[in-house]
Predict the structure.
Amino acid sequence: MAHRFTIAAGFDNIMLTDGRMYDGGDTATLTDDQWARLSASFIEKVVRNHVEIREGGGTGGGTEDPLSPSIFVVARKTANQAIPATATNINDLAWALEANSTYLVHIVLVQSAVTGSSPTLTLSFTGPGSPTLVSLRRYQMTSATAVATTVITSFTAFANGAAVANTLHTIEGVIVTGANAGTLQLRGQAGGTGSPTVTIAAGSGGHIEKIS
């Protein structure tokens, strides 16, 4: 497996574990061993758009296993974010989608705090135009024991539900892009009265797998 990523802006003359120098905005590709020698703090500060490239388990000169996912892209929030009463991008949770490709999606959000009266959280996506298929399901904890589910079949908003502190939102499903590439961006909007906000905790995140 290899690891491809972008060096964050503002970090120049960085020597990585492959012995090469990089500047902010450069793309690097490291082997598993080289990646393992990067510190967690370095990855958090410097690494952006990390992609794991799986070469497959076939034999005969490294033939790619057609059943193995070709690209696995992870994103996570590096800081808490208070979502206001206007639709807002959820920082760090965006993925580049290629045209004519199929992706599996899995995202988990930790809702760590809420304010206002009867707060709610609406989650939505923007993405490439004219997709062939969008089928995404959201599981929202509306109490410590209750879970509500909603489904979207286009890049739009899930129906909202009661926002409760220290609960989870999970989104999973399938996206098949058409002729257009673009960015899959997760967005949020708090509802309720009394200046509502919903805080999404650092460490929330997810991944997409390109399977064809």
Summary: The longest helix spans residues 40-46. The longest strand covers residues 102-126.
